[in-house]
Amino acid sequence: MGYPYYYHAPMFPSRAAVLDVGLKCTHSCRFCYYSFLDGSTDQFSGMRHAKFREGAALRDVLTQLKASGFLAFDITGGEPTLHPDIIDLIRYAEVDLGMSARLITLGQFLMKKHRNGKRDRLIEDLLDAQLTNFLFSCHAVDETLFQHLTGGSWLVQRDAMNLLDEKGIQYTSNTTVCADNYSHLPDLAREILKHNVYLHNFIAMNAYHYWSKEGRAAGVQAGYVEMGHYLREAVAILEEGGVAVNIRYAPLCTMAGVEKNVVGVVGVRYDPYEWMNAVNHQSPVPTTDGQRLPLQGGQIERVFGLVEKKEVVNGVKLIAARGIPGHPDGFNKLFSAECGSCSALNVCDGFAPSYLFQHGTMDAVPYIGSSRGDLLDNARMAYTAPFFVKRRQGADMKSVVRRALHPQPIGANPKVSIIVTCYNYERYLAGALESALKQTYENLQVILVDDGSTDDSLAVAMTYGIRYPEKLTVIRQDNSGQPAIARNKGIERSDGELILCLDADDLLAPTMVEECVDWMRRHPETSIVYPCMHDFGIKEGIYDAKPYSFPMLLLGNFLPYCSLYKREVWETVGGYRTNVRGCEDYDFWVAAGGLGYFGKQIPRVLFHYRNHQEGIYLTDVKPNYPEKFRQIILNNSDLYPPSMVRQAKSGEPIALVVS
């Protein structure tokens, strides 16, 4: 697609994967999932003696990931910076395959020379290899506490972050929340704001593997209620400072007030960073790591499905669980009797067995009222800030996230440029110009682009130019046959803060601009305002455009081409494309959404669309729509599921993938 980032549409499966280089690690994280891996009494012995996977095998995995349609991947371990081939693997992925890598690390070796590196510091070798992103495991910003939690040094990690800050490179960070650090989260958040972090994850410690046995997590795992106060404060600090926040793996009711931030097992398959490939990190020779997990759109993986479980275990009365009998992870999430009346049951993770048996059921406080929705509830889907995926090392992610968190309203009286395009529409042009020039909104200019008309369209335009010399500019160009070229030409010559395109055979309601500007001002998060539409001519009727949904927009257009949008949208997208004639507006709206510029419907019939036999819709778009839709998918391939991209390339029928 060529853009430095993209917005991952909720409800679509992730385009991200994981490259697990092996579990070898020298750190001593108290909460490590792989503690006591080898069954010994030494918590970290298994990690110390684990082996890395061979570089050649990992290279094969990367090749398969690319073939499977993945765009980005996380590199994990163990501590992946210790892998002897880490620099070459990243260079192969980034430079040769065009994928985007994110390195998960405690950062203890980044400022040291790598044994196979050319530079004095590994971090410089990684940047030379075009590494896109880092994910720092930032569990504390107090040196003593950091050392207690990990065996490493916060100061060493901070040095690596400072180097990236100096180079203007932006990145992400993680904090595993446990009994020892939850009260320090606000201080950690304030420190994060001093760095180039654009996305931070708080991970409530999951009692997996060794920790799943009753009593083992006592003293390490924090209670949700006790951590909640500090977590909410930390989220507020970060978001106010322009950092997006995820909270991973906590029951919704324990995170009251920050439900929008919660990502759980129910919705995790639709998270932009979820690993959608199979992986066996203990296999020395990967065989299936590069393949996508099978997933039907809208379906929760069976291991996370909700099943009835009415029994009493360790004195806790249960009603349901997430999981399937016989699965290696067993019933890994439980719901107590208190959850029975909760309206969020269908979208909540539930409680880990070890947590429920250690802390009891007092944390479960049911939601009352209507259901919170399917898979991803409305609050989560409306929280767009964490859904932006970095694709290039130098991408300015902080500006994108800040725009999502703190949208700026338009000015009190922004200038609007109406771009009228015309080819041989002499008989309609006067009506279109009248409707544009006689708008009730006064601060506007009209740019008429005549695309080499052979009738008297230019003469009509010049007549209006004489009557409205301060408002109307007339441009003539040789015939391009492309609405995109004419629109781009007009926008280039305009200087309005807001843009509205109008074809010469259509009409605006007198208050269209005034009402749309006011609507945009009242909804500062909106970059595009689109009206309901009146069809007239050979077909009559009212087209009630759908409420805006970017996932649904990817599957079919419902925005009129004649919609008011910010000039910034056109500049960032790069204008209308010319390889989707007649659908350049749909392609433009898709590209805009992929960059975080979203729309909002104004429920007013303000646009009049003329249906006639010579119109481009009947002569070109309608008979050729399947091919045009394929090209739109290919133009915006980062935004669509791999199966749809593959079908668009091959000419197969397009199977829509969405919940």
Automatic annotation (TrEMBL):
Query: Which superkingdom is the protein from?
Result: Bacteria
Query: What cofactor is needed?
Result: [4Fe-4S] cluster
Classification via InterPro entries: Aldolase_TIM, Glyco_trans_2-like, Glycosyltransf_2, Nucleotide-diphossugar_trans, rSAM, rSAM_sf
Q: Which GO terms describe its molecular function?
A: catalytic activity; iron-sulfur cluster binding; metal ion binding
Q: Which residues form the Radical SAM core domain?
A: 11-244
Task: Give yes or no: UniProt keyword tRNA processing.
Answer: no
Q: Which UniProt keywords apply?
A: Iron, Iron-sulfur, Metal-binding, S-adenosyl-L-methionine
UniProt cross-references to CDD domains, sorted A to Z? Glyco_tranf_GTA_type, Radical_SAM
Q: Does the keyword Metal-binding apply?
A: yes
What PANTHER family does the record point to? GLYCOSYLTRANSFERASE (PTHR43685), GLYCOSYLTRANSFERASE 2-LIKE DOMAIN-CONTAINING PROTEIN (PTHR43685:SF2)
Its recorded name reads Radical SAM core domain-containing protein
Recorded source organism is: Telmatospirillum siberiense
